[in-house]
């Protein structure tokens, strides 16, 4: 039911000197004669409400707490990607790993040359796709190096196989992302190149010991200081992500598991 109090009467109440000069608008600060009016008109949620300064402080604290939910954010988005990726490693792969291990350690692998060739061919197809898209001339490119390695195998009398399902599937997926989903594509770009520079090199060394008489393939060599090349790419990736919203960044991070899935399927070709 609408209030029957005339507008002129309501206005006169807010002009009373006692109310205007009151330091704290609460029942305790009002004359007894005004309490009945207070109880009728003041919203109950205002009674005993904290000062505005306390509300602002609480809001700021909540915002700060929300910001801390993204590990690595203070160091740049690449660190966020690294944190998520490390969690998907097993404990024997990285101390930060949380994923249960369902495969023997690399040192106990029994690779074959045929399987390794399938791995190299599918890997080249993936790098071809990545290097046709963005971030050209980073110094991390692997496609040309892999071409030299495959030519070496050919010279040794091995038949180079055609790309197989894992490589074809991943390459097509990357091509689609590069055209339609730049945030997701960056996640794969980061994980493929940075994983190869770390765990990939270790795997290559172990495989070479077992089946290649310690042959040092071009796939595991870089022109220039690798740590410097990686740092330059970190800077570029962080720069790109500066313009992304939090939602876009989270979308990129959510793609990490798919990157691990596709890369893992290609890696397992070594054991076939």
UniProtKB/TrEMBL annotation:
One Pfam family cited in the UniProt record for this chain: Heme_oxygenase
CDD domains: HemeO
Keyword Protein transport included in the entry's annotation: no
Any one Gene Ontology BP term: photosynthesis
One GO CC annotation: chloroplast
Subcellular location: Plastid, Chloroplast
Keywords from the named record: Chloroplast, Heme, Iron, Metal-binding, Oxidoreductase, Photosynthesis, Plastid, Transit peptide
EC number(s) per entry: 1.14.14.18
InterPro entries: Haem_Oase, Haem_Oase-like, Haem_Oase-like_multi-hlx, Haem_Oase_decyc_pln
Ranges that cross the membrane: none
GO MF annotations in UniProt: heme oxygenase (decyclizing) activity; metal ion binding
UniProt entry tagged with the keyword Plastid: yes
Similarity-based family: Belongs to the heme oxygenase family.
Name of the featured protein: heme oxygenase (biliverdin-producing)
């Amino acid at each position: 039911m609408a209030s029957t109090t005339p507008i002129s009467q309501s206005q006169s109440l807010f002009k009373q000197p006692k109310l205007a000069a009151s330091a704290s608008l609460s029942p305790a600060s009002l004359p007894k004669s005004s309490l009945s009016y207070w109880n009728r008109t003041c919203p109950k949620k205002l009674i005993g409400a904290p000062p505005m300064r306390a509300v602002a402080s609480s809001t700021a604290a909540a915002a700060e707490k929300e910001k801390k939910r993204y590990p690595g954010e203070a160091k740049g988005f690449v660190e966020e990607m690294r944190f998520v990726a490390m969690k998907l490693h097993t404990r024997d792969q990285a101390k930060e790993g949380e994923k249960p291990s369902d495969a023997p350690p690399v040192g106990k692998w029994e690779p074959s040359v045929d399987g390794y060739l399938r791995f190299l061919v599918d890997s080249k197809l993936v790098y071809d796709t990545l290097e046709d898209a963005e971030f050209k001339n980073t110094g991390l490119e692997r496609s040309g190096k892999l071409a030299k390695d495959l030519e070496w195998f050919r010279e040794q009398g091995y038949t180079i196989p055609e790309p197989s399902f894992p490589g074809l599937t991943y390459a097509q997926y990357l091509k689609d992302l590069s055209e339609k989903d730049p945030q997701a594509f960056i996640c794969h770009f980061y994980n493929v190149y940075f994983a190869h520079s770390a765990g990939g090199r270790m795997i290559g060394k172990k495989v070479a010991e077992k089946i290649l008489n310690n042959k040092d393939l071009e796939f595991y060599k870089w022109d220039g200081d690798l740590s410097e090349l990686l740092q330059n790419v970190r800077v570029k990736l962080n720069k790109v992500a500066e313009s992304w919203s939090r939602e876009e960044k989270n979308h990129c991070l959510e793609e990490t598991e798919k990157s691990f899935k596709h890369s893992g399927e290609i890696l397992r070709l070594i054991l076939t």
